Amino acid sequence: MSEPTPGLKTSAFKVPGEGSSAAISVVTVFVILGLWFVVTNMGWIKPLFLPSPQATFEQFYAYLTGAANDKPLWQHFAASMFRVFAAFFLACLLAVPIGIAMGMSRVWRGIFDPPIELYRPLPPLSYLPLIIIWFGIDELPKVLLIFLSCFAPLAMAARSGMRSASQEQMNAAYSMGASYTQVIRHVVLPAALPEILVGMRVSIGFGWSTLVAAEMVAANVGLGQMVLNASNFLRTDIVVMGIIVIGVVAYMFDLLMRRIEDKLVPWKGRV
Q1: Which domains does the chain have, with CATH numbers?
Q2: Which among 1, 68, 113, 221 is least surrounded, fewest beta carbons within 10 Å?
Q3: In 3D, which of 221, 213, 214 has the Cα closest to residue 74?
Q4: What pTM value is reported for the model?
Q5: What is the band of 100 on the pLDDT scale with cuts at 50, 70, 90?
Q6: How far is Cα 11 from Cα 269, in angstroms, rounded to an integer?
Q7: How buried is 86 (Cβ within 10 angstroms: 0-12 exposed, 13-18 middle, 19+ buried)?
């Protein structure tokens, strides 16, 4: 008699070396900082093109303490956070239900697919003048521009996620007496949740990348406005400092979204 075939383990699949990825990332950051320090302090690159880390940190400290010849950093930060997260919240409020409807109904897909696919490839600067003409130069066009950059990827992710549930899972739920609404709630939506969360991470990245363009609209405060204003006076140290602040904030939010993803969909990436 032949020996029974060993069963496949159903425990979580662990990527080799996953625990060391954080250490590698830290080393990479220090290597980049070291190279930045060397090339700028050795005079290989002029400060106009790339300021030294010391000059960049001095500007960060000046803005942080309010000693800079500008509004303090917290005011720029608060204004940008309000614009980005107000737009992101509105995008989640509208894009997720619309994406779910597109994934479940051909009618809704036929209604929303053409306008979304039409504007999705367009850079925000291409329709910025039209938004200014329609909505003026107050806070609304700034939030709206960021909202549009967040909306399309989130709606597409929700639409794609609705196809994650297999027909066998839905048939099994129906066979146990579940209604159509219960199947959507307990089978389809949990299967779509991982892609929806990934869409949130992608859309907030688009929102931060649109920040500078949004704050070109007659803004006098904001991280993007700070970078834009400094570039007009060739203050590369302030430009680099602002870029780093925007990047760090976006990365911290991405880490937060990853943690939320681990809590809400712990089965993702497991076999």
Answers
A1: 70-264 (1.10.3720.10)
A2: 1
A3: 221
A4: 0.79
A5: confident
A6: 11
A7: middle
